[in-house]
Write a structure and sequence with these properties.
One of its GO terms (molecular function) is phosphate ion binding. It is a single chain. The protein is α/β, with parallel strands linked by helices and 382 residues long. The chain has 15 helices and 15 strands. 35% of the residues lie in helices and 23% in strands. The strands form 3 sheets. Strands 1, 2, 3, 4, 5, 8, 9, 10, 11, 12 and 15 form an 11-stranded mixed β-sheet that branches. A two-stranded antiparallel ribbon has the order 6-7. A hairpin with a 5-residue loop joins strand 11 and strand 12. Helix 5 packs across helix 7 and helix 12 runs antiparallel to helix 15.
Length: 382
């Protein structure tokens, strides 16, 4: 009897210790939306949980879903790769530039290490006017001598500016390439869901090659497509899949295919990454430095929206760099929710997430003036 009583007392004491070790105020907050920043948001979950008491979860789908969920306040925060300007947007919703990365042109072209493509060629491939891999325009982009630049970088890996605000170039490199391109049809794979990736990709095509990509950008690829996507030439050759995960995996299963997605999907699917020939006629890879050079020319308005300069002559600018926005509220019903969303946004923007974790995944660090503007937007969450 005595032993039983002692055991009960010990069990009660252990239960009290376990309760004391688990903060009563710990909570899990939920986000949803764009697939573009999902890998970074997911990879930083453990670090955020270790930095405080709260946790978060993130449901990756599309910018369109994130925007829709923000309308109905489903969850606590939302992600969108393009500004949300619809009439249904709540007046208390703000945009926080939170995650920067390149949209990469990924391809499954056997026998090549990589490709370099001009905006006009990319527009022709995805617009259906260039249908064969040995097209003279693709050959002209690749069989030539090209130059690239190497910037001076800071400790965060971003290009450094001088006193006049110009990026500091350490050196330039010239490369002569020659490819024998195959006489094979190009299989084009596009995002068939409503996504900010589509919006940014088609905006690049429309702004950079307007005589070829003649229709304005859209979150729905087929809405922006400049011709007849169901023509005899395109039917079965141009196909769609939902999300970056699915377009990448479909490209991996389809020899001679091409698609667009976050750069980190290349390694996961054994795809190759094309470089772009920018308006300065320099070849630029989709990396953090190229994105940083491109974003340096962007402007931001009072809503937090960024306007990209697709005609910038900055030599090392990768013109398909984008920012994914957190959509957050300035009037949450609960103060604890506002504080938690602020903490999540601040952590994702911090070097512990964006630099230490993000660099390995192909994301860029938001720093300098753009980071200051992002922090000012975070301060408005309430």
């Amino acid at each position: 009897m005595r032993i039983s009583r002692i055991a009960k007392v010990a069990a009660s004491a252990l239960a009290l210790v376990l309760v004391a070790a688990t903060p009563a105020y710990a909570a899990n907050y939920s986000g949803s939306g764009a697939s573009f920043p999902a890998n970074l948001i997911e990879a930083c979950k453990a670090g955020f949980a270790a930095s405080g008491s709260d946790t978060y979860s993130y449901a990756s789908s599309s910018s369109g879903t994130g925007q829709k969920n923000s309308d109905t306040q489903l969850g606590d925060f939302w992600m969108s790769d393009s500004p949300y300007t619809a009439a249904t947007r709540r007046a208390t919703l703000i945009h926080v530039p939170l995650v920067a990365a390149p949209i990469a042109i990924l391809h499954n072209l056997p026998g090549t290490k990589t490709l370099q493509l001009s905006a006009a060629t990319v527009a022709g491939i995805f617009g259906g006017t260039i249908t064969m891999w040995n097209d003279p325009l693709i050959a002209a982009d690749n069989n030539r001598t090209t130059t690239s630049v190497v910037y001076k970088k800071d400790k965060s890996g971003n290009p450094v500016k001088d006193a006049a605000g110009k990026l500091v170039v350490l050196k330039t490199k010239s490369t002569t390439a020659h490819y024998t391109l195959p006489n094979k049809k190009i299989s084009v794979i596009y995002r068939n869901d409503s996504s900010g990736t589509n919006d940014n990709f088609t905006k690049y095509l429309y702004k950079s090659a307007p005589t070829i990509w003649t229709k304005a950008n859209s979150k729905v690829f087929t809405t922006s497509f400049p011709g007849d996507i169901n023509s005899a030439t395109n039917r079965g050759r141009i196909t769609g899949a939902a999300s970056s995960t699915n377009v990448s995996s479909q490209a991996a299963r389809t020899p001679y295919s091409i698609t667009y997605a976050e750069v980190n999907y290349a390694a996961a699917n054994n795809l190759k990454v094309a470089s772009l020939i920018n308006p300065a006629d320099k070849v630029v890879a989709p990396d953090a430095v190229g994105v940083g050079a491109f974003l340096a020319s962007a402007t931001q308005d009072a809503n937090g929206y960024l306007t990209y300069n697709y005609t910038t002559k900055e030599p090392g600018a990768y013109p398909l760099g984008i920012v994914s926005y957190m959509l957050a509220d300035t009037a949450y019903a609960k103060k604890a929710t506002a504080a938690a969303v602020k903490a999540i946004a601040t952590y994702i923007l911090s070097p512990a997430c964006s630099q230490v974790v993000g660099a390995k995944l192909g994301f860029s660090v938001i720093d300098g003036a753009l980071k200051a503007k992002a922090l000012a937007q975070i301060a408005k969450i309430g």
